[in-house]
Amino acid sequence: MKRQPYPVGSSSFTCRSSINVRGRIHSSLRVLLLALLPVTALASPAADAPDLPPQAQVTSVLRSSPMVSAAGAMLEAEEARSRRLAAGPHEWTLRLTDQQRRVRTTPTERFNEWDVGLERALRLPGKGELDRQLGAAGIASAKIGRGDALHEASRALLAAWFDWLREQAGAEQWRKQRDVLARQAGVVKRRVELGDAPRLERLQADAALAQAEAQLAQAEGRAQVAAESLRRLYPALNLPDSVPEVAPEAVGQDAAKWVGAILEHNHELGVARSESLRARIGASRAEAERRPDPSVGVRVARERDGEERLVGLTLSLPLPGEGRRADADAAVATAQASAHREAGIQRRIEAEAAALYRRATAARAGWLSQQAAAEALARSADLSERAWQLGEGSLSDTLNARRLAHEARLASSLARLDASEARYRLLLDAHQLWALDMDDDEHGEHDHP
Q1: pLDDT tens-digit series, residues 275-293
Q2: How far apart are CA 136 and CA 28, in angstroms?
Q3: Nearest-CA neighbor of 61 among 162, 142, 161, 154?
Q4: What pTM, to 2 d.p., does this model score?
Q5: Rounded to 5 degrees, what are φ and ψ at 40?
Q6: How many domains does the chain have?
Q7: Is residue 65 part of a domain?
Q8: In a domain, 364, yes or no
Q9: Closest-CA residue to 188 (of 211, 173, 208)
Q10: Which residue among 138, 231, 337, 368 sits deepest, i.e. has the most Cβ atoms within 10 Å of its Cβ?
Q11: CATH number at residue 357
Q12: Nearest CA-CA partner of 162 in 46, 49, 52
């Protein structure tokens, strides 16, 4: 079966054109290794965000993540595989033969004989360089994989942190609502005792207060569950008693800049590119393996009790067959599949980056609208309560206005957190939030806040 070239990026690849293939592989490998160096973010390093955990704690948490530790172990494994590839697949073979010769014409004559041989297969020129490229590509892929694990751990930490903040915000809003209704219930109680209000209003006020207390108990329980989960998942993270409310900033209108930054720093795409490069090198190596490696050796023998001594050289050469051709075809097909996966992953990440930017801008716009509604309903509730105190309204209208104001405040608080999380997620994927390039951690070299 004739193997057809397939596109990889802007160039084509054919195993039979070994010189051009090696040139492209060298170029791609250099690009991949340069991509592992620390990169400069779009923004300068910033101070700790008041509504996020301190960066020192975040760094400690991420470094101790089991996911990141596993990726580090895989990097060590790839370094060992790289040394194995550089050493080559062949080793010295020692052959030792001890035999006894009996001559029929002279039955009494027996001769002790032995034969010692030492041989080894030799890699043909070019194969060793391809093996070293395979090892380097494996290390590069493992380093990007460690960055991907670090990024995924950062995403999980950010999501868990904001889950806890949402539950905290819900409990705080219900606490405020409980306090307002408790104060109102106290006013109703005094008015009933003075005969200025019917006992029905006291029942209504007490029922509203009881409902608020029940909701507060449930909200505090959910907040405690979220806090306990956060502590268990990230033991090095110290949860503060309170987190300040911070208005989310606008992310800007340049969508192309954000999409480009996310694509530049995306570890999943980097892993796909490194695996595609690795597959191309593997295809070239499989093509080279169609020329079998010869084995050479030296042989020393002693025959007829030393009457004959032999010293010779040996040469063996496997005869290539259809199996080697099939291996080469399979490697080319694998490289084609890797190239298609790379293209698909890039297309998906571009779409996700654009959606993430749109989500961040829409979330902030939604929060601004919710905030305006909450402020208007809060003023309406205050006016309704004042009218009731002056005898111009009913308590049920006042309680309903308070309920609507509470719901609007809660929705505004959650919308603020949604907008903040979307913005931080955008910064995180663009490598502008936390240190996500830790290839040189042992030297303490970080280019990101």
Answers
A1: 999 999 999 999 998 999 8
A2: 12
A3: 154
A4: 0.78
A5: -95, 130
A6: 1
A7: yes
A8: yes
A9: 208
A10: 138
A11: 1.20.1600.10
A12: 52
